[in-house]
Amino acid sequence: MQLAVDNLACRRAGRRVFDGLSFTLRPGEALAVTGRNGAGKSTLIAAIAGFVPRHAGEIRATGIGERSLSECLHLVGHRDGLKASLTAEENLAFAASILGGPRLGTDEALARVGLPGAAHLPVAFLSAGQRRRVALARLLVAQRPLWLLDEPLTALDAAGQGLLAGIMAEHLGGGGLILAATHAPLPIEGAREFRLGA
Amino acid sequence: MLTRLANPATFMRVSGYALPVLAVAAALLGAYGLYLAFLASPADYQQGETVRIMYIHVPAAWLSLLFYSIMAVSALGTLVWRHPLADVSQRAAAPIGAAFTLVCLVTGSLWGKPMWGTYWVWDARLTSVLVLFLMYCGILTLWRALDDPGRAARAVAILTLVGAVNIPIVKFSVEWWSTLHQGASVFRVGGPLVDPAMLRPLFAMALAFTCFGTALHLAGMRTEILRRRVRRLTLLQAERLERAAA
Amino acid sequence: MMRTFLALVRRDLALATRVGGAGGLSLVFFLMVVTLIPFGLGPDLNLLSRIGPAILWIAGVLATLIGLDRLFQADEEDGSLDLMRLSPAPFEVVVLAKATAHWLATGLPLAVFAPLFGLLVALEPAALARTALSLLIGTPALTFAGAIGAALAASIRRGGLVIAILVVPLMVPTLIFGVAAGDPTNPASAQALTILAALTLATGAIGCIGAAAALRGGGE
What we know:
The structure holds three protein chains of three kinds. Chain A is 29% helix and 26% strand. Chain A is an alpha/beta fold. The longest helix of chain A is centred in the C-terminal third of the chain and has 16 residues, at 158-173. Chain B is 81% helix and 0% strand.
């Protein structure tokens, strides 16, 4: 699939967040969206996901057939979407059924993010970094071409960042797209940078 | 003795021996009590065969209060001495007390049908027991709502003690409310004069219920101790995963 | 779509039974309201018996309000709702599933235990059966009406009270026909039961569409 954002403008509670954003994202490409706090990184991600209405401009996705854009993307944000009283496995199995199309089994996905053996642990017992990994494992249990990641490196240690880099490289190698809002540089070779609010 | 027992490991060992003894005693006493209650005691000249419900009802009522007292003492233990076993005892006592209160309510209601012609009368005693049941429900709800056992223990201990102080006030106000509406509560449960032939099964059953309740309480405490051990081990496992990943 | 529905129902029921879940809470509250009214009215069994169906229904309405504030808010706060917004299933299905799970955990127990609690207010066997039946048929309407309010208040920090004010007016028709259907001396009680069933179906449709419309845009 290919994503084209054309002259996009968003408002939040009447306040201008950004105007006239344009970029394209082709298969295998990663875009690191940077900018100061409040520049609208999270708003851009929410707008692409369809959670925030566009004020002007267009978001076009091609090559996804009949499906809508929101069915073709993953979002991992500040709010991790995990239920503390459910186990890691239950959380992932739920995400897989909701998002449709299982790709990796939950055990395999947990192993890929460096949490083998955490399947039956309630998420409440996990540390912030471990929770983050479980949330990232969601990217692996359902197949979706576009990954929207809001500060994906937060709470991850060096080992976790290394694992994430491998997972992202594999996704890009398979023709996937990544758009990540980030303060730190993305651990991806050849990622373009898009600066907001400059 | 108490301080030596009050160590979870010692408690597990001693209660492991005490539990089967109590269970057997409860079974034997219960069998004897039921034999007396159903076969070897006369029917009441006023209440007929229905009086036999009392052999279950009265011991259940006794245990519903006993368990609230156990909880109140345990609550003091939690708040004043911060003893871990006190809180385990309180946690284990709550569902058992609630269950005996429910048994008391149900048997009272079944007894009421032939006596009063209806399953429920807002009689002062029955109503007080109902309020006691609601208090048990509140305590159980608070346990369930809090995840962290330490915080839950303190909160529940405070609620239990507040409840204990309130029980006499509730009892008094319900009685006042009930006599205010005298029409509905002309009946009184039992009388001061009980025939010795009925006292014997009553005592046997009360003793059997006490043994049974204590056995349940010990079993509940053992389960709770094990449950906490499982929780600790699970937390440890999560930590180990963290270290392995780093 | 069916898969999404079942996964959601299963998850919400599991959450209700875990630590911090609301399973059983509404039932206890229901019992408390039923107990409270005789303390205010006095223990006159004839009076209680006459107004018994109304007591049970009002207690049912109040008990349904319990836990409604977390129906969507909890999922909105932790981001689970965003996950559901990305589902290929229509958002109405998400609302239907969450409301169904909520009803199974709160409304159904009310109907099941109503005959027992009805004894407290001296209902006759016929009235007991009819009130339980009317609660079984009518409580889903309460849940669906509540779902609209829960969806509208999902992103409000202190949503609980707001929800009660939003949805109680929507519950009025259900209460009217529910009480009428529960009273066996009412000559029109059979018709009331039919209307109650119609209300449940209509509120189900309106509730799913309305709540989905309120939530689809995103609360963030």
